[in-house]
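Might I ask for a little of your time on a matter of protein folding? What I wish to show you is a protein chain and, alongside it, a tokenised description of its three-dimensional fold. I should value your view on which stretches of the chain appear to form regular backbone elements. You will find the record immediately after this paragraph:
***
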Amino acid sequence: MNTSAKLPLKLSLLAVSCALALSVAQAQQNSQTQDDATTASDNKKSDKEIEIITVKGIRRAQEAAIDVKRAASNIVDSIVAEDIGKLPDATIADSLQRITGVQIDRTAGEGSSLNVRGMPQVLTTLNGEQFLSPWSITNVQANYSDIPSAMISSVDVHKSMSASMIAGGISGVVDLKTRKPLEMSQGWTASAGLEGSRGSITEKDNHDANAFVGFNNGDIGFTLAAFNSNSNSANYQMYEDSRMAWPNAGGDPTDLNDNGNTVNDRFLVPAGYGVKAYVMERERKGFAGSLQKVLNASWTASADVFYTKMDQFDRGIETQFNGSNNSNYDVLRPGSVLTEEATVPGIDGAPDRVLHSLQVAVIEAPDFQATTRSRQNHTDATNTNLQLNFDDGGPFTGSVRYVYATAEKVYEDATFQQGTPAWYWIDADNNGQNDPRDPFLVTVDYRPEYPTFSYTDDLSGVDRLNLYQAYAYGIKDEATMDAFRADGKYEYELGDFSSFEFGARVGTRDVDTTRYDYLTPTARYSTWSDPSVDPDLWYQMLPGDQVWQRYPDWRDFKGDANLGLPAATDLQSQLISYTDFGPFQGFESGVAGLDPKSLDNLAQFMDFVYPGAQKFNDPAKAYNVEERATSAYFQGNFDNAIGIWGIPYSGNLGLQVVRTDRTVVQSEVPLYYEAGNHFGGGANGSQSWNAVFKSTGTKVTEIDFTDYLPSANINFFPHDDVVVRFSYAKTMSRNDLINVGEGLTLWYQEYTVTDEDGTERVVTSAGGGNDQGNPNVKPWRAVNYNSSAEWYFAEGGILGAGIFLIDVKSATETLQEQRQYADSDGVIRRSVNVWTTKNVGASDLKGFELGYKQSYNFLPEPFNGLGSELNYTYSDSESTDRDLEGNPFPLQSNSKHQYNAVLWYQAGPFSTRVAYNWRSKQFNGRVGLNTNEAPISLGNWAKDAGYLDASINYDPNQHLTVYLQGTNLTETNQRSYAQFESQFHSMSVQERRITLGVRARL
């Protein structure tokens, strides 16, 4: 979209905003006096003056959040704790979803990551300075999974920027705030909370304990907060990776849809048909402390530390009927229900492809796998701050500040598979010849609320699960961050300007990412009487580095005399029968598997199954990125009590310059297999998927770029209860580091080729891959326009409306492109689709917001305890990425519509709240359609969803509160589809949770 096409929209936004301001001014002009103007000007207090130190109760928390919004110089929305250690919801993200324009994602039922106005490029700060989170070491999107709400006193969401703020958020900045000792009431303050909870599906007891103590004598003060929690949440899922049926055979040879077309039809099908029965356990602990000391009449020193640690275990069992047959996804059989959706025109002489969605799958699966799995995230982060503030009562105030942080996130994944592969022939009728295994006849119906499975086989024993295989890997992200900044403010009148702010900052973020695999010393020349292998080498171990396997050969529970393997009696004795698959029907008779907890210790588990297994780093997935940002800003703050046409105004105007120096270190690895350049891979590279390449060196890329970020905020006060705001800012945000540092990795598959003499043989071919690391990728850049009108019509009451336009100048997208790589015999035969990262052109995100809060204290008793909060956000965007029909995709993670409705009641010792949050369908990104044909652009869309929460609080006295909370009372699930609403893609089951707690305080 060109600039001339955007200009009218920008002008119309400003025109509407100006008209809104002038209409409000005209309505108030007759009654407004010069005293009113002076009063309005006086009402513009600083954030320090307005900060609420002790907040108790729903009514007071809402009033405090409104006060923060009213006093801010830019567009801000806030949440404030009702009491020490008590934000409105169980997690910070859950609380933030109540803010107009904030959309959250959920993991196992808990709020985790979020976006602002439909964009995930959001900067998180802690007390105004950059915050290093384990969940955002390599990602941009804010994620608060490891931060309990009890540690935070308030959160501000800045939707318009000013030059004095840290650059790094495209659509907003989320500032987490902890309590400052010298701003608390003098004397001792203490509180403690304990709660227990239980889910409607897991039915396991959980706990959460937190404590806070603070002291302030006016000269020195400290705070210390600590927490510990354990929770178990249902995480039952279905996730169907999309494939195309018959991509290699050229069509539908069985004419499933009975339309006479056996050439052009293509069906979107899963790679496998099954469910995942997981329970996510989260163990959190940590502390936050602050010390402040008045050194003299001019200087105050402070030191802060914020520490969090989480161990997250996502354990369970997966079932999967194989959707592939001889490398073609052709297991669908008559009786399947399909719908024609779209036609993709052929390219370069290829025929058109007629795509069909799948509602009922009648399949003849060649085999079945039961998978026991343990997926873990271990996070650890420490953020520290040392600060000196200067204020001698004169015109100059300032501060110097040093921030240092470390964070680590380790993801580990261990998998134990059981099955009887289709190639595993046995002598079923005892006639001396091996017979092929009978396929599994299964029907999967995706149309009900919960998909159903029906079949006749028994999956609870090993009679059809003869073989086993295990593998494990991990990813370790480590980061350090340090920043030194100096800020000053000088009060000096120059025209409308009353003060000037200025400062400089140098910050460095250093990130190391490593992937490691557990390789097993199990590779052989052959595991059967392979005629292509010298008989003297049958069953023999491969020599040297070739002995290692990333994915070991399948083994038989009963052992194998030819391989010298005894029966796996110890392993087999640990098998149990799983019957709990939540609401998914069809597996009630049980599926065999291990206790997932036995996989938690990857090294111990892999050594038990495969003695001698070792951990190997994969250099292709390793990288280091250091980004050093040097910035300086100058900002003028203006204030005019007379104003324009008698309308007072205030605001700021400034410029921030940011220079970023990026150094990327990547390992260089070979693409082709040669002797000595890899671990594993089989004889002559015949098992390429099993190999880990050795590093041949490192590649260092150094680039730098400079951003000039002007900003302006102006606020009009046509009446002492009305504020009309306008803002403009250029913004930028760093890239996800996977899009900067990760190297090229390919995945491989085997297929049969026929030589000129008619000989058939199996070769290994690249089936696809990832090459997402682009050290030269540019950051996200945008221009933001905002305006809003706010009417503070009563204490605790606000009616507001706002419009916004985020003009994205530079964005980053991950997309597939076709490439060619040689097969294992050196011949190029196929094209494969590889994911890569590119900068793309401009896109827009525009919309409007409506918000209303009111305390109905004017009503007669008992209704005077009522209050409500309503808000709605419309957020529309178009990226340059388009689907197969040419329709533009929105920016990723955005929902076009969202609203919140909160009703609360507070009277005497009793208070209660009911809250409902709803968002329309959400764009999750492209569907990873795996095909060797030309890429097809399909969108992954999450369906609209609404969540109902409620809480009841009772204070028998001023020192004690007892509360009962319910989250996701309607047991809303997350469900997504692949491009077409009738094409099931994934589903995540989320349970209702009931919490009973008590909180005590001095």
